[in-house]
From TrEMBL, chain A:
It comes from the Bacteria. The lineage of its organism: Bacteria, Bacillati, Actinomycetota, Actinomycetes, Streptosporangiales. NCBIfam families: thrC. This is Threonine synthase. CDD domains: Thr-synth_1 (cd01563). Its cofactor is pyridoxal 5'-phosphate. GO terms for molecular function: L-serine ammonia-lyase activity; threonine deaminase activity; threonine synthase activity.
Automatic annotation (TrEMBL), chain B:
Gene3D superfamilies: 3.10.20.30. InterPro entries: Beta-grasp_dom_sf, Mopterin_synth/thiamin_S_b, Sulfur_Carrier/Prot_Modifier, ThiS/MoaD-like. This is Molybdopterin converting factor small subunit. It holds the Pfam family ThiS.
Length: 410, 91
């Protein structure tokens, strides 16, 4: 089998640095640490990137994908809008605020970015089935990408997910299995399935394809920098579920600096969690280096990972960059969803309520500088979590079709 | 107590390819000690130099993540299944 992962040349352990050949493996044989793609980048210029397609493949020379990736059957996600958020900024007292709105991806969440990379890895390894454990958004991204790529799909979710996410995961065909348990239990199930003969030739995007999959989140960093005119933001607020996205955005910023695509400057990374599932925030505030798992209870189901695999790295990054990790309650999440909607016309899912809520909390606490360039991420679409706002987003009035009736309610 | 231990793919080189092996001990600590005696070297893959469970390994006794229970002191009743699982990314 000849593998083509473009600039990626090996897998290396993030924990102990041990190196391995590129393959469908995800944990270090020495220490169980997570493996990630290691590269030998050639020359990459701003002009070359700008001449590329309006999707993540404009950065293909920075990703573990083959050189002809644009020719493949893929969802081609990314290049979502970076909205200059003057309304939200004014409301919060921030001078220069941007919302990176990733609800604009093909299946309406940032997960299309990571899955697009995982699909190319699955093709490389000759897998026939694409799978994942998911809090919802990932399941939809995987089944859609499998449909486009002509792969089988079988995805696993906690059975109690939002109806919209269930529909989104099933409509593209493939098998959708609801598991009676939490996301962490679904994850455990998938880890055991992977060592079983049933899971032979299956690519679990966030398990055995994780070293490739996770790299997709770097494209958020690349796009934000390019959309800001090839410069890094001063401050960025990122949601934390497993912590993978935050970790990879930091990696992306560092690569841009190392490649000379942006000027080196300090940036602060802030992590955002829901109080009902805040193991990383709790560890951050307590000064711990490891994360004590929790049992999630929050409306922000896409972030409800009680045992976040990359939690220790999030702690390292928040501390290294001078950022912080903060959490907000469910009512604060709903209030933040409405604030973003009313000031920017962006309808975020609960995860977006978490980041905007945390942004607000950090500004109010004086932990974030209102004078600096700030980016806040919205990683999913409010239409997938309608239940969260249904009690506050009802008709203002229901009336007879007469002007008299309208005058009484206006 | 006699227990069964599920071995993840990456540790099966120690167990001659077996995904399930039998173990012995009243607590997780005892079971892991016995496991290392039976399959020399496997213990150091699960525990770090200071004897703590490595931060990217999850160990379950029955259905419970031992970090929610008593860690290495978690009791391992007769017949229980212990699972050793690498941490994975989310979604």
């Amino acid at each position: 089998m000849s593998l083509d992962f473009g600039p990626a040349v090996a897998l290396s352990c993030r924990e102990c640095g041990a190196r391995y050949d590129l393959g469908p493996s995800f944990a270090c044989l020495e220490c169980f640490g997570p493996l990630e793609a290691a590269y030998e980048f050639g020359t990459v210029t701003r002009e070359e990137i700008a001449a590329g397609p309006a999707n993540i493949w404009r950065y293909k020379k920075l990703l573990p994908v083959p050189g002809d990736v644009e020719q493949k059957r893929n969802m081609n996600p990314g290049w979502t809008k970076l909205v200059k958020a003057e309304g939200l900024g004014k409301s919060l007292g921030l001078k220069s605020l941007y919302v990176k709105d990733d609800s604009g991806n093909p299946t309406h969440s940032f997960k299309d970015r990571v899955v697009a990379i995982a699909v190319e890895a699955a093709r490389n390894f000759g897998f026939h089935t694409l799978s994942c454990s998911s809090t919802g958004n990932l399941a939809g991204a995987v089944t859609a990408a499998a449909a486009r790529a002509g792969l089988e799909a079988c995805v696993f979710i906690p059975a109690d997910l939002e109806q919209a996410k269930i529909a989104m995961a099933r409509v593209f065909g493939g098998k959708l299995i609801g598991i009676d348990g939490t996301y962490d239990e679904v994850n455990r199930f998938c880890s055991e399935l992977i060592g079983d003969p049933i899971g032979e030739k299956w690519g679990f995007v966030n398990v055995n394809l994780r070293p490739y999959y996770a790299e997709g989140s770097k494209t958020l960093a690349y796009e934000i920098a390019e959309q800001l005119g090839w410069r890094l933001p001063d401050q960025i607020v990122i949601p934390i579920a497993s912590g993978s996205q935050l970790t990879k955005i930091d990696k992306g910023f560092k690569e841009l600096i190392a490649l000379g695509l942006v000027d080196d400057k300090p940036y602060k990374v802030y992590g955002a969690q829901a109080t009902g599932c805040s193991p990383v925030s709790v560890a951050y505030k307590a000064g711990h280096e490891v994360v004590q798992p929790v049992k999630p209870d929050t409306i922000a189901k896409s972030l409800a990972i009680g045992n976040p695999a990359d939690g220790p790295y999030v702690l390292d990054i928040a501390r290294r960059t001078g950022g912080a990790v903060e959490d907000v309650s469910d009512p604060e999440i709903v209030s933040a969803i409405r604030l973003l909607a009313e000031t920017e016309g962006i309808f975020a899912e609960t995860a977006g309520g978490v980041t905007v809520g945390v942004l607000r909390k950090l500004v109010e606490a004086g932990k974030l500088d209102p004078e600096l360039d700030t980016v806040v991420l919205n990683t999913g679409d409010g239409l997938k979590t309608l239940d969260a706002v249904s009690s506050v987003a009802a008709p203002s009035a229901v009336i007879k079709p007469s002007l008299d009736a309208f005058r009484k309610v206006i | 107590m006699s227990v069964s231990v599920r071995i993840p793919t990456i540790l099966r080189t120690y167990t001659g390819g077996s995904s399930d092996v039998s173990g012995e001990g009243a607590t997780l600590r005892d079971v892991l000690q016995k496991l290392d005696a039976d399959y020399p070297g496997i213990g150091a893959r699960i525990l770090d130099e200071s004897g703590k469970i490595r931060r990217f390994v999850n160990v379950y006794v029955g259905e419970e993540d031992v970090r929610f229970a008593e860690g290495l002191d978690t009791a391992t009743p007769e017949g229980v299944q212990i699972s050793i699982i690498p941490a994975v990314a989310g979604g």
